[in-house]
């Protein structure tokens, strides 16, 4: 019987997540061999560490297999349409900041806003007989955003990485992806639309609203949360 805490097993969020917990008296460590995804928690008894991909944390929390988990708000909102019913955000961790944005080729000098994009998308379809392609891995969030903005003449193209390269590779006309420093967009001759980002994201600690807890686990969860509330 234990309270399960899921944190990213590698990638850009792992080290900073470990630092954030350490500053609050909870030490997370990877144990075992270099490539082994095993971990331990010191500072609160009864908590077990689950190391997994940041992209899988939302699903595991929503299924109740994790009680607590760290991942970006972008991944939660993209993967869980009903996230507010399933998860409670407990703390924004102050790192992993990234904006989900729409970006077009810098050469499109007449396109700076969603209204411009709407006009160009319609003209593109008329001229080419196909819809303007937007490469992204954030299908749900992008569709919802464009629906609200009244942009309809587009097709999403799935891109799970190196999304900014799809325009030069001619598999898409524009992209929707997260940006932090903006360097990747600049290097690939893309510019962000002037409108507000689709989403502002950062690494966040979540609690599953659906995971079952025994009385004993409830006590452990309360002890963990009281640690994490104090620096
Ligand atoms: N350049 C960036 N700067 C800051 N945060 C980022 C950046 N790119 C992605 N993130 C955030 O980091 C989180 C994890 O991103 P992602 O799923 O791409 O994993 P990763 O860090 O590349 O690790 P993995 O090796 O598991 O894929 C997401 O919430 C995302 O918003
Ligand atoms: O604005 P920047 O600071 O340049 O960061 C943004 C880049 O970081 C992420 O990619 P990642 O490094 O995870 O590689 P990926 O494209 O393979 O997902 C994201 O998808 C952007 O490509």
TrEMBL record:
Its EC number is 2.4.2.17. Pathway: Amino-acid biosynthesis; L-histidine biosynthesis; L-histidine from 5-phospho-alpha-D-ribose 1-diphosphate: step 1/9. The keyword Aminoacyl-tRNA synthetase does not apply. Keywords: Amino-acid biosynthesis, Glycosyltransferase, Histidine biosynthesis, Transferase. It catalyses: 1-(5-phospho-beta-D-ribosyl)-ATP + diphosphate = 5-phospho-alpha-D-ribose 1-diphosphate + ATP. Signal peptide: none annotated. SUPFAM superfamilies: Periplasmic binding protein-like II. Residues 54-215 form the ATP phosphoribosyltransferase catalytic domain. One of its GO terms (molecular function) is ATP phosphoribosyltransferase activity. Catalyzes the condensation of ATP and 5-phosphoribose 1-diphosphate to form N'-(5'-phosphoribosyl)-ATP (PR-ATP). Has a crucial role in the pathway because the rate of histidine biosynthesis seems to be controlled primarily by regulation of HisG enzymatic activity. This is ATP phosphoribosyltransferase. It comes from Roseobacter sinensis. The gene is hisG.
